[in-house]
Amino acid sequence: MTAVEVHSGYKYYGKAKDPNKKIVLNHLNMSVTRGSIYGLLGASGCGKTTLLSCIVGRKFLNSGEISVLGGTPGTPGSGVPGPRIGYMPQDIALVEEFSIKETIYYFGRIYGMSTEKIRERYKLLKELLELPCDDRHVGNCSGGQQRRVSFAAAMVHEPELLILDEPTVGLDPLLRERIWHYLVDTTSTSKLAVIITTHYIEEARQASCIGLMRNGILLAEDTPINIMERFNCTNLEDAFLTLCQKHGPSEEADRTTHESHTIRSIKSIDTIEDVGSDIKKSIPPLSSSHNEKKDMSKSLYEESGKPITRTIKEVLSFTTKRRMNALLSKNFLQMIRQPAGMVFLFLYPIFQLVSFYIAIGGDPKDLRLGVVNDEVNNIQECFNRSLITTYYHDEYDCDLYKISCRFLDQLNRSVAIQEHYESFDDAYKAAKTGKIWGFIYFSDNFTESLQDVRDNVRDANPGSFHTSEIKVYLDKSDQQVTFFLEKKLIETYKEFAERVMSDCHLPKQLANIPITFEDPVYGSFQDEFTDFMAPGVVMTMIFFLATLITATIFITDRLEGVWDRTLVAGITALELLLAHIITQTSIMLLQCVEIILLATFIFDAQNQGSNITVVGLLMLLGFAGMLYGLLISIFCDAHSTANFMATGSFYPMIIMCGILWPLEGMPQYLQYLAYCFPFTVPSMAVRNVLSKGWSITNSQVYMGYGAVGIWIISLLLLCLIGLKIKK
Ligand SMILES: Nc1ncnc2c1ncn2[C@@H]1O[C@H](COP(=O)(O)OP(=O)(O)OP(=O)(O)O)[C@@H](O)[C@H]1O
């Protein structure tokens, strides 16, 4: 009975029309019977791994046919990929954060085994492969130990077909021999078929059949003894060398069709089993320990009491819930076992929010502002309290004296620290050299001029209008600092002028410019810049954290082979995605809760609307970020390129999404572009909920939801297209 049959398998990498495309399998024929070991030998790069990937249903032939356990791999109902096969890839492809026991239990669960059965199998495999202690983390195991764990993971569910890609690399000879004996024993007592690739050609003597592969074709497929006899050699290595020399020097698959080149001396595929048993006879007898292992291997396959060949129905009947639990616990364990990752996930949002609230929006302090007051000979005169009093005589007379001192007295220290200079030139020089942020200048007749303007208005001396002004010279290189100083100087002047007016029994309004800002429709006079920025900051954080986490997890899993191995075990990409979405959603929910609690209770951020509307929008945005991360992970093969893409898109979005500068300040065409970014409209929506208390029925709020919805659908479509292209 045939376990695997490849007929005229043809596969290339690259575009079909590209004349230089890489042909890896060139009309290859291959046949593996049940109850046998098939040793696939060949130089590095000859296409062994590609062939195995096609057999397990992870890659597809461009032409030709493959039949595995009676079905076509990758087709519904074939059970391949799935638990009918056990696959040990060339890379370790295990989750490093798992302990050895967790690894075996993880694979057992995704193969749909009951806990009882996994426990039983783990005990046997642990003894057979001499695995280290249960709780040793895979990442802390030696290369050889990891390989044994990987081998156990491929065997845990008693597959019908076992595919081992270089399982013995890096193992000591004793262990290599034990693994081979185990395979020989198992295949002789069950219908298990094994395909094994190895660079140690001689160890393949123990296989029932050998396929010598070179340049994408099988040069020969026969029993080891027949191959050695045919080429008159005493060992397989020489036989392979002779065959290669006959075939030519090329390392690459050539472009001619090789359909008829495979040398087959086996009369019928079904006879391999018999030939295999001949070989087994030629193998030196097993030591007593091996005999024990033989019994054990027999029990591994027989003691379940079930028929070894499973029905497809049986295979498909395992509980999705159990598989989902396995995937979820993998995700959570991976997360918990990486302290740096945990800190990043849960402390980073706190750190970011705290630093945002502490660093942004506060009034600049300890600014140094120069003062040149020509009204007084010595600035000490200004510290005389009597100077800052106005004497009211009658309704026509109100004495003002050295009134600049009164202004300076009112110029609060919280606005700026006053530095007094003797002359205009000294202060100017100090501002030029950056010692002060600017200076205020009072002319020597400031008070008289002010009085002249106040009392004589129309008849005042024209020069008085000029000398009654407080002249301010600022270093305007820092917009926020000078904006603050200007605002505070105007406020101080208003207060000063009002007081002078009331001391002189004049209407206060005389001191004001005729414009009044009444109670705001929304917000308050105390509203700070942080209130404007906060929604955007939180949304960009949630979006890009989800992007980074998703891209990192998927790329790591793919690079380490865990993704591929899990798919070969029969988990679908959709299940993997679903498990990630559940994990990521829980993380985002916690992040949202911690952010909202922190902002509300520690930083007293106001929310006039519904928390549910805000959290809902944040979660959807996080979901969009997650899909963006997935898209990046589909198209980027390495972490570095993924980081470039994530960071490269982060900065333009931050700059143009309206959190740093109002969109109204941008050119029209840029505004249109900015509205297309994923968090521009949503952060406006959140701002409207927080500051205006608008509900989801308001167009500016539901448009936020709409914008995220459009992003989610577009990213989802792009991911599906990407997955199809990259398949
Ligand atoms: N995704 C890919 N795109 C392009 N070329 C590829 C891809 N995967 C493999 N190849 C090329 O195909 C050839 C066969 O690769 P494969 O991994 O199947 O070889 P192998 O026989 O398993 O080698 P080794 O024994 O070193 O693992 C190699 O030249 C390899 O560079």
Automatic annotation (TrEMBL):
GO CC terms of this entry: membrane
Transmembrane residue ranges: 340-360, 532-556, 576-603, 615-635, 641-660, 702-723
Short name of one Pfam family: ABC2_membrane_3
Keyword field: ATP-binding, Membrane, Nucleotide-binding, Transmembrane, Transmembrane helix
CDD domains registered for this protein in UniProt: ABC_DR_subfamily_A (cd03230)
Cell compartment(s), UniProt: Membrane
Membrane topology term: Multi-pass membrane protein
Molecular function GO labels: ABC-type transporter activity; ATP binding; ATP hydrolysis activity
InterPro entries: AAA+_ATPase, ABC2_TM, ABC2_TM_bact-type, ABC_transporter-like_ATP-bd, ABC_transporter-like_CS, P-loop_NTPase
Domain ABC transmembrane type-2: 497-726
Domain ABC transporter, chain residue ranges per copy: 4-240
PANTHER family according to UniProt: ATP-BINDING CASSETTE, SUB-FAMILY H, MEMBER 1 (PTHR43038), RH61964P (PTHR43038:SF2)
Listed name of the protein: ABC transporter domain-containing protein
Gene of this entry: 5564418
